[in-house]
Amino acid sequence: MSLRLEHIYILLFVLLSTLFGCEREFGAVRSVSDLLLSTDTISFDTLFAGDRSTTAILKLYNLSDEDLNVESISLAGSDKSSFRINIDGQALSKLTNIRLYSKDSLYIFIDVTAGVDDGSSNAFYDDRIDVISSGFSWSCALMAYSLNAKVLDDVVITSDTLLTAELPFRIKGELKVESNATLRLQEGTIVYMSPESRIEVYGSISAEGTTESPVVIRGDRLDKFYNNVPAQWDWICLNRGASNSLFRNVNISGAKYNLQIDSAVSVVVENSLMRDASEGVVLSYGGNVVIGNSLLYNSGGSLVKQVGGSLEMIHCTLSNRYEWDDRRVASLVVRSAGDSGGPNLTTSLVANSIITGNHQPETECDTMLVVFDHCLTEKVNFVKAGRYNFHIDTASVAARSANPDYLYRYPVDLDGNLRDVERPSIGVYEPKTVGEAPLK
Known about the structure:
This protein is mainly beta. The protein is built from 1 helix and 35 strands. It has a 16-stranded parallel β-sheet that branches. Strands 12-14-17-20-23-26-29-32-35 form a 9-stranded parallel β-sheet, with no helix packed on it. Strands 2, 3, 5, 7, 9 and 10 form a 6-stranded mixed β-sheet that branches. A hairpin with a 2-residue loop joins strand 9 (123-133) and strand 10 (136-147).
């Protein structure tokens, strides 16, 4: 080996030794302002007992100009906590001597599992994430609530049954009501529907709430994001042969089809709110349907589709501005079954109702068999339709414009306010004066 080549190897060895031998130094935290947590409180959406939450994210920032050594990050409740944390990729309840580069950050992932008790009460969970270094400390409080519910998992009801408001119910799979059985839902009863769950009725269902305590049937995702999300569960279906059914003061939301009615089945929907369905809110194939004083909005299909049978709809508001997909059908469809051999449509009535949306036209009806009386099918300016407030004010074209002949059927609006005796308003609500206190 030549002397020159030998010198080159020695020089390379020295350079590599220097490079890998010099370890980057991480200093001590000198001030409470060196580190920052992205928040001081994380509150999880309400969980059902036994369920695991979505994952929350907490970030720890190094705001200083120096690389720092963080002495410890820990969960105060340690391994006994209902919360779990993952610190910078490590699923531990405590991690020490964490190196954090200048102006860099690390992630802490948090979730919680609600415990299961005797089902008689709800529970509150709390804990804390602590960051400690050089005598300084930073904390983030963790909070979660759990909701206990009676679980009905693939249940068949063979005799008259009452669901009370003592605890909410959570339906998994199919809840089947056999013929000759009636399922009753007491005022204030809340039913949470799990994904792909459904209620199949071959007997009868009677859900009767009040204005103050409606019956609520909705999806079981309690995160705020899911309040207006469709297709969280399947449907309520009144199958052929089912007995007369009633939905009064009921709120139903978040299904594929909120309510399906089969041939020759009679159902009354009054003083109710039905919304946010991916395929359709009310679908009747040959049923005899009465919808009164009710608000229906937002569906990927029709809000009301009546094929054969009969429909009576009085003092209702239908507004369809579905945002989850393109909608290609009218909000209100009423027609015979045609060549399919299904049931014929008998004379139907739509009175004192608003049918509007972002698809034109919003009605597709057999004009020979459907009578429209004092209805609005063009644009109506609601108070705040974008915020799901479908009230009207006194300046609205719907105000004081209805036929009073139907007042005996629905003398109060959906809020429980008396309708004007001589000049009631079209739709589900009586108007508020412009500039009056906020509407509920």
